[in-house]
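Q: Now give one record:
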Amino acid sequence: MDFTTLTIDVLKALSIVGGYGIGIILLTIIVRALMWPLGVSQQRSMRTMQMLQPKMKAIQERYKSNPQVMQQKMMEFYKEHKFNPMAGCFPLLIQMPIFILLYSTLMSPQFISMAGDSQFLFIKRLDATMKTSAGISNDGVFGVSRYDSFMAGKTAKVFLKGIDEPLENVKIEKPNKAVEVQGELNPGEPVDFKVSLDSLNLKFSQLDQIEKAEIAVTDVNTKEVENMTFDRKEGLLVSTIPTKEVKTSFHWDVFALLILFMVTMVLSQKAMMAMNKNANQDPAQAAMQKSMNTFMPLMLGFTFFIIPIPAGVLLYLVASNCFQVLQTVIINKQLEAEDAAKENKISDIDVANAKQIKDKNIE
């Protein structure tokens, strides 16, 4: 199953509400809502761990000279309190493949060709990265940089021997891999492209009759599109087009989105820390946690500044962080209510026991 195509189809359906920007946000909400039970499990595990921290530290201090016994005692302690220390990590492990899928989808040539130029609020293009180059489409010259990659359109117009009318809308298999550069890509010098005949969804007898094909080729980096004619040569479809070097421009809207991502990440971490403010936490551990909460947003922000990441992916991360803040607050109130109910139940039991003892003494 092609999960990238499936995700794109879902985004396309959700975009009917208000464009692909809204579609990305709705998809984020749906994914995070489906994972809500795991979020509850994660926060409950973190809350339990904070409550048990003093006893765990006491065991570690007592058996620090014998690691084997300490590990055994810790396992017994976990079993006694029905606590799984890995329960808090499980939701994070689940989210990683989901993030990778969404990242690969929003980075895919299919999404770029379908909705890359979509605007949302102050974002001019959902496929734009911090630094990108732009070319002029259909001018017969590709504006390129040295390490650009290319993709074919979804369909081609194919001309067969002995047939006057060309075959329209012939499907191209795996458009992101169909077009290959022959040799090196040197801006200012002509570039040669090749397409395998097997990339065209035709019968074997038709493949043998192909003379040429008209295919739209897209530079994934600059988003420039050129409609090119590929001639058959030695079992391949080949074409040559002049190139020119393009200049890189800085997109301030994507930079602003990156800053918004860092701010929402800080807010998300503050919400998690507020959940544990009343817990008995080791001062050294609290200081380390505070340092990590400051360091992580800066580290990720710097990473995304260096590594090209589309505005659509940053929009997903911002929406995910906002959802995380709301989820943390709601679940925390839910857990506080559960703890209060348990305390009231225990108090009622103590009162009932005390009354029974008093009645017995009177008798």
In short: The chain has a mean pLDDT of 76.
